Give the backbone structure.
Amino acid sequence: MEASRIAEVFGIQLKQLNIEKEEIQSDSLTEIASHAALQAAKSRPYRVVSEDAGFFVEALGGFPGPYSAYAFRTLGTAGILKLMRGERNRNASFMAALAYCQPGKHPVCFKGVVKGVVSRRPKGTNGFGFDPIFIPLKGDGRTFAEMSIEEKNVISHRAGAFRQFSRWFTSKRE
Amino acid sequence: MEASRIAEVFGIQLKQLNIEKEEIQSDSLTEIASHAALQAAKSRPYRVVSEDAGFFVEALGGFPGPYSAYAFRTLGTAGILKLMRGERNRNASFMAALAYCQPGKHPVCFKGVVKGVVSRRPKGTNGFGFDPIFIPLKGDGRTFAEMSIEEKNVISHRAGAFRQFSRWFTSKRE
């Protein structure tokens, strides 16, 4: 899992909880992640981390945003490219929200964003979801799907959110 | 509200609860409505009815489905028509799921479906959401947005689900 590898760099061990995540509908990733972490930490003796990510296309009013997984399953990258036909503004971003929750406490949230553009056609086979049509600005023109996990982890939204969390968490412990 | 008017025909009075509905992410309207009803009936002395509806386009893998409100806000009817360009299969349906929940009990669910096609362009100003691009088969070729509320209530998915619920509810009482 991407997340564990990033967290490990900061000396944090994550373990996947074998429960169903309760995902609410909301335009806010932070709200979705917070709710899931709060629910998961309820009546469990664990400190929980929950993460939610989405692909936001500027010309599409932020679509598919928090519903990226569903949009990918139904429309795929082809659907997004079709919607982008004739659009001059190809700005898009991947965003991730991470919520940390200690049982009985309010969740604390962290965000990661990576800005880029929607490519003209899908490229690459790594990663998942809309990775093949997203070219990050902090890159060399390749899509997320053309990068190795190691390369993606340096700049990705998920990595950004986890990095912030890890820094906060380890500084709290010292 | 459409719902109260239909329920009243069956002698059922509905009152809008002034609370925020907890909507989960799911491909199943029944699951979304059940969860919301269960949450709303928790620690409240009311029998609760919750409803969820969506627009399902066959050629788009069911998209926008349970996320129709979000898809409408971001892509609009224009977005769906753009996605449908060149598609021969224009089959679509509106579906509604209604969950009834008595405090401390499991929710009971009812469904309503209305089949139709995606129109070539938006028509009509009544209704809301994707009504202007949906032509029900049980009609005269007009879109939902070209019908009056009274006409729509005879055939609509929402009306169908409420009608089923009302029949069940009143027969239970007798």
